[in-house]
């Protein structure tokens, strides 16, 4: 059952990766216009407010003269205005960003599907617990102890991991029940 769920999750991840490869644009020799840009941050100058300019230019043309259009100052103040501007060349890979987001969403989706599967199947697998009775009623404690001392057949072998986990859980609950019983008995003897 778990192998079937794992197979479905793996096949859905493979399908998403395949769709990503098909739908993504083919690799080009030059970067796309959204992957590169020159960003110039110009502070206020005289009566002109500060402004940020973005333009898709090559790295060698990343300066105020090529990016700032239209030039907000007259011709004789251009050099002083451009000295105040700070221009940075920025480069990114949108394809890589898209692939990472798709992988992240696929993993989150697979985990949500697994959680829904466990929420739906867990109540069907769990059996009623014999050890949830109140501890203070002595008659019920005696019944629980008699149930705990019933030997299990040694020849029977747990077939699944879930049965082994349930067996370990039952053994732990029996130990806790015995510890509680001895603690409560000692408390009664001391008082």
TrEMBL record:
<comment type="similarity">
    <text>Belongs to the TMEM9 family.</text>
</comment>
<dbReference type="Pfam" id="PF05434">
    <property type="entry name" value="Tmemb_9"/>
</dbReference>
<keyword id="KW-0732">Signal</keyword>
<dbReference type="InterPro" id="IPR008853">
    <property type="entry name" value="TMEM9/TMEM9B"/>
</dbReference>
<keyword id="KW-1133">Transmembrane helix</keyword>
<dbReference type="GO" id="GO:0005765">
    <property type="term" value="C:lysosomal membrane"/>
</dbReference>
<keyword id="KW-0472">Membrane</keyword>
<protein>
    <submittedName>
        <fullName>TMEM9 protein</fullName>
    </submittedName>
</protein>
<keyword id="KW-0812">Transmembrane</keyword>
<feature type="transmembrane region" description="Helical">
    <location>
        <begin position="99"/>
        <end position="121"/>
    </location>
</feature>
<feature type="signal peptide">
    <location>
        <begin position="1"/>
        <end position="29"/>
    </location>
</feature>
């Amino acid at each position: 059952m778990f192998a079937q769920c794992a197979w479905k999750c793996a096949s859905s991840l493979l399908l998403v990766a395949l769709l990503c490869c098909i739908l993504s644009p083919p690799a080009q020799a030059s970067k796309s216009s959204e992957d590169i840009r020159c960003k110039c941050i110009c502070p206020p100058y005289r009566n002109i407010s500060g402004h940020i300019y973005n333009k898709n230019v090559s790295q060698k043309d990343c300066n105020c003269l090529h990016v700032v259009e239209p030039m907000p100052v007259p011709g004789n103040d251009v050099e002083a205005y451009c000295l105040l501007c700070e221009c940075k060349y920025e480069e990114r890979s949108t394809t890589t960003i898209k692939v990472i987001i798709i992988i992240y969403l696929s993993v989150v989706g697979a985990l949500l599907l697994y959680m829904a599967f466990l929420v739906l199947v867990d109540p069907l697998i769990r059996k009623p617990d014999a050890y949830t009775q109140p501890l203070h009623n002595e008659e019920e404690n005696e019944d629980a102890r008699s149930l705990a001392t019933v030997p299990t057949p040694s020849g029977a072998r747990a077939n699944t991991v879930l049965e082994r986990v349930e067996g370990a859980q039952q053994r732990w609950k029996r130990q806790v029940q015995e510890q509680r019983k001895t603690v409560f008995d000692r408390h009664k003897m001391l008082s």
